[in-house]
Amino acid sequence: MAEIAVVAISVAKPGYEEQLREALEGIVGPTRKEQGALQYDLHGDVQEPRRFVFVERWESQEALAAHARSAHIAAYKKAVADWVEHAEIRVVSKIA
Questions:
Q1: Are the C-beta atoms of residues 10 and 85 closer than 8 Å to each other?
Q2: DSSP single-letter state for residue 33
Q3: Residue among 1, 78, 89, 87 nearest 70 (CA)
Q4: Among residues of the chain, what percentage have pLDDT more than 70?
Q5: Model's pTM, two decimal places?
Q6: What class is the 4-92 domain?
Q7: Which stretches make up the ABM domain (predicted)?
Q8: What's 71's DSSP letter?
Q9: Average pLDDT over residues 46-57
C-alpha cells in the first residue's frame, strides 16, 4: 500500500461561508477516526474567506475510497449541495 495525499478545496457561494465552514468542521472528527486516515486538517484561505482547503494523508487509495463512501461524507455532500460554488479534489503521491 502506497501512502497518498489529497488537497480538497471547497469555495462557498457568497453568504454561505459560515454554514459551509460549520459543515466542514463537522466532518473532521469522524474522518480522523477512519481506518487509514493519517492526516485530515481543515484550513481557511487567508486571502479568500470563502475558500476552505483540506490537507489530507491516507495510508492507501483504498482508505481514501472508503472515506468517500462513508455515511458522514454522504450526509455532508447532501447538506452543502446548495452552499458550494466550486469544489476540487486532487489526489497526489509524494515524489521527493
A1: no
A2: T
A3: 78
A4: 99
A5: 0.93
A6: alpha beta
A7: 4-93
A8: H
A9: 98
pLDDT in tens, 22-51: 999 999 999 999 999 999 999 999 999 999
> How many Cβ atoms sit within 10 Å of the Cβ of residue 29?
10
- Looking at residue 1, what is its pLDDT? 66
Phi, psi at residue 51, to the nearest 5°?
-105, 130
What residues form DSSP beta bridges with 89? 8
Residue type, 11: V
Cell readout for 66 is: 472508503
Instruction: Burial-class residue 35 by CB neighbours within 10 Å (0-12, 13-18, 19+).
Output: exposed
Phi, psi of 50 (to 5 degrees): -85, -10
Q: Tell me how far CA of residue 5 lies from CA of 22, 48, 80, in angstroms.
A: 23, 23, 24
Name the grid cell of 49. Answer: 474567506
Query: Cα dihedral sign for 31, 32, 34, 37?
Result: positive
| Mean pLDDT calculated for residue range 63-84 | 97
Counting Cβ atoms within 10 Å, is residue 65 exposed (0-12), middle (13-18) or buried (19+)?
exposed
